[in-house]
Amino acid sequence: MTTIAVTTWSMEQTAPTDLLPAVAPQGDVRVVRSEVPSPEFSRFLYASVGGDIRWTDRLSWSYARWQEHLERPGVETWVAYDRGTPAGFVELEAQDDAVVEILYFGLLPASRGRRIGGHLLSYGTARAWDLADRWAGLTPTKRVWLHTCSKDGEHAMDNYQRRGFKLFDTKVEEEADVAAPGPWPGAFPV
């Protein structure tokens, strides 16, 4: 088995005023919360967004595991739609000590490079800051964090920095070099 060195950068915002919103893209782009926990839809988003960049950790999750995760208080999925078609998503998770993690964020390959990502990240980050407004019993958010890695899209780090996220940790680890699964063979343009 071959391995590759993967650099993981952890980034954070420590106040809502850290968020530097992107300009909304032209056209009919909307961001909507997926309020009904749907393992099928969430797995579709995960596989479609991450299929070409080696997101594999959740591919083996059972239906029950997806359902359990999505039903946890403070877990939200926000989906960007371009003219009614899913373009990408951001998944939030409330954690201890008034912290919210952006667990996943990304765009389907056909939606990349169209200014949707900055808008979706801005919107999702704002929803991380006001998460407690939608969930009784949660403490108002004091910190929003995420991690990105060298396997993610080429513009990911720049987008996070342009939205006001600051680096707080860097790690380099060897990982198994797995093929990008894609949602199905040949789905991504070469």
TrEMBL record:
<protein>
    <submittedName>
        <fullName>GNAT family N-acetyltransferase</fullName>
    </submittedName>
</protein>
<dbReference type="InterPro" id="IPR000182">
    <property type="entry name" value="GNAT_dom"/>
</dbReference>
<dbReference type="InterPro" id="IPR016181">
    <property type="entry name" value="Acyl_CoA_acyltransferase"/>
</dbReference>
<dbReference type="Pfam" id="PF00583">
    <property type="entry name" value="Acetyltransf_1"/>
</dbReference>
<feature type="domain" description="N-acetyltransferase">
    <location>
        <begin position="39"/>
        <end position="190"/>
    </location>
</feature>
